[in-house]
Amino acid sequence: ETKNEDSSSLAILPTPAIGGVGLLEDWEKSATIGFKAEGEAIFLLGMLHGELGQSMWLRELRGRSEGAPPDVNLEEEQALGEFVRMLIQNCAVSAVHDVSDGGPAVAVAEMALAGNIGASLHYALESSGQFFETAWFAEDQGLYIVTTGVSHELQRLAHDANFTCYLIGFTGGSSIKWKS
């Protein structure tokens, strides 16, 4: 909740927020959001549905606050979260970020800023049947952006675990660029 200029309350959408605290047995086996090196593959893990209801994109670029927030499937989200945790523990990924606050494009931008490394992205998400906005700015639940230096291993692990894994680009440079 935040205050307007006249001191009245204003809810920040979406209002529900969940935080978590835990202990790590080995903090060196943790992941941060910042890109770590140039030339790493960038993947979107999880099934992209393209849900824009109540999204930042809809609110900021279209001036609308409508639609239902993204559906949540707790069983699928827990399974993917456990898979991502296993990837981190096995050092299979170098950076991890969820897409819940602005979609894949915003998550990649935050990762690039945190690591001071750019990215070259391709329009591969559009080939999944989504339009540019719904592919890159959807705030679907249970989606993660991850980076890795061993992309074939990550793809194999995701395939074996029955998770969707989109290659969306590579880290490098000093800016974020989309290529077709």
Query: In one word, what is the shape?
Result: globular
Oligomer: single chain
Number of helices: 5
Q: What is the succession of H and E elements?
A: EEEHHEHEHEHEE
Strand content: 15-25%
How many distinct beta strands?
8
Structural category is alpha+beta
What is the end-to-end distance? Answer: 41 Å
The value of Rg in angstroms is: 17 Å
Question: What is the helical fraction, as a range of percent?
Answer: 25-40%
Can you give the mean pLDDT?
Answer: 82
Largest sheet: 6 strands, mixed
Strand arrangement within the widest β-sheet reads 4-6-3-7-5-8
Spans of at least 5 consecutive residues whose pLDDT stays below 50 are none
List descriptors.
180 residues; alpha+beta; two-stranded antiparallel sheet; 8 strands; 29% helix; 18% strand
Question: What does this molecule look like?
Answer:
The termini are far apart. The model has no long low-confidence stretch (mean pLDDT 82). The radius of gyration is 17 Å and the shape is globular. The chain has helices at residues 56-62, 74-89, 103-115, 132-137, 151-160; strands at 2-3, 9-10, 41-45, 95-98, 119-122, 144-148, 165-171, 176-179. With 180 residues, the chain is α+β, with helices and mostly antiparallel strands. A six-stranded mixed beta sheet has the order 4-6-3-7-5-8, sandwiched between helices.
Map the helices and strands.
Layout: E1 2-3, E2 9-10, E3 41-45, H1 56-62, H2 74-89, E4 95-98, H3 103-115, E5 119-122, H4 132-137, E6 144-148, H5 151-160, E7 165-171, E8 176-179
Parallel strand pairs: 5-8
Antiparallel strand pairs: 1-2, 3-6, 3-7, 4-6, 5-7
